[in-house]
Design brief:
By secondary structure, the chain is α/β, with parallel strands linked by helices. It is built from 8 helices and 10 strands. 28% of the residues lie in helices and 21% in strands. It starts with 12 loop residues before the first helix and ends in a 5-residue tail after the last helix. It comes from Trichoderma breve.
Length: 229
């Protein structure tokens, strides 16, 4: 069976442009940020995520693709700046720690953001300050519409807070090991079950309803945001 549609170039431009648009999909764009050793307050940006396929198909696909050059970095010995192709409408920007301020060059462009919640003894201190002053962390993200807290251990944390322009219904807590994604209400339910009730069901008569609600509302990481290996 043929896998190439050879008459594609003969299709009307309007149809081709719609096909290119349908080929765009959300990516989890991991960005590694490191401080510049010789310039305090400035950072180098890099990503191991490959460029989107549309950037490699043909000239027309590149021209119509919704990606732009962002997070410019000039390394020693480079004659030109390096950059990352980003679709700020669909791509979720992911960083490996909680230092969101390092995204300042494009903070106003980022609509979907994921960051890593600290672990160990520092987590308790960070959660306390974060919960009391959440707006200070998100003030510069003026277009934020979706936010993911990536956790390596546990879900019960933070509690409800106002995260700038991001609607509360679009805040998720993600276990990076299992990929399970919960809303704040679901994480509170899990925390209550695990800690206050010792993992025991309070009323067996309601267990089926509670379980059905949790399973029906849980959102897996793969369903919500495709990650490129």
């Amino acid at each position: 069976m043929a896998t190439t549609f050879h008459p594609f170039p003969r299709l009307p431009f309007e149809i081709r442009s719609q096909i290119w648009a349908l080929a765009v999909y959300p990516r989890l764009l991991h960005i590694r940020i490191t401080p510049k050793p010789d310039t305090p307050g400035y950072f180098d940006y890099a990503s191991m995520i490959p460029q989107a396929e549309l950037m490699h198909v043909c000239r027309e696909s590149r021209q119509l693709a919704p990606y732009r050059k962002a997070f410019f970095t000039t390394l020693p010995g480079d004659c030109e700046a390096r950059y990352i192709w980003v679709n700020f409408d669909e791509d979720m920007i992911s960083i490996q720690d909680e230092k969101m301020g390092r995204l300042f060059p494009h903070a106003a462009d980022i609509q979907r953001l994921r960051f890593m919640v600290p672990t160990g003894s520092y987590r308790e201190y960070w959660e306390d300050t974060f919960h009391r002053f959440p707006d200070t962390h998100f003030k510069m993200f003026t277009a934020l519409r979706e936010l993911h807290f990536a956790l390596s251990k546990g879900y019960g944390m933070l509690g409800y807070a106002h995260y700038g322009t991001c609607p509360p219904d679009n805040v998720r807590y993600v276990n990076i090991h299992t990929g399970l994604m919960l809303t704040w209400a679901q994480s509170e339910m899990m925390d209550d079950w695990a800690w206050r009730k010792g993992g025991l069901v309070g009323e067996m008569d309601n267990f089926d309803e509670e379980l059905e609600w949790v399973v029906g509302n849980a959102i897996t990481f793969i369903q919500d945001c495709a990650e490129i290996d």
